[in-house]
Design goal:
Helix content is about 60%, strand content about 0%. The protein is an all-alpha fold and about 100 residues long.
Length: about 100
């Protein structure tokens, strides 16, 4: 396995040392792999099964990094303007729970 050394300024290193239980190497490894998968996905639109397993393990997928489409944002804003639910009286609420 290859080894990479990252230089950071002293104040930043001191901040990292406040969390001795964190495996910064593992975090760095995951972030590099995420970046690799994302760039590959942007070029090909595919990921391998092994990369898919890694994505599942960390609950992430390259599409998570893509910006939202303008159409979707517009729909969200329209929903935001509306009421999320209608008020219910006691009888309607009871009926709703009885149907469950």
């Amino acid at each position: 396995m290859a080894c990479i050394t990252v230089s950071v300024e002293k104040p930043f290193k001191e901040r990292l040392e406040r969390f001795p239980w964190v495996s910064w190497s593992e975090i760095g490894r995951e972030e590099v792999l995420k970046r690799y998968i994302f760039v590959k996905y942007m070029k090909t639109g595919n990921i391998t099964k092994e990369e898919g397993k890694f994505c599942e393990k960390i609950d992430w997928h390259p599409v998570d990094e893509l910006p939202l489409k303008k159409e979707f944002i517009r729909k969200l804003k329209n929903i935001e303007k509306k009421s999320y639910s209608k008020p219910m009286n006691h009888a309607e609420l009871k009926r709703w729970f009885d149907d469950l």
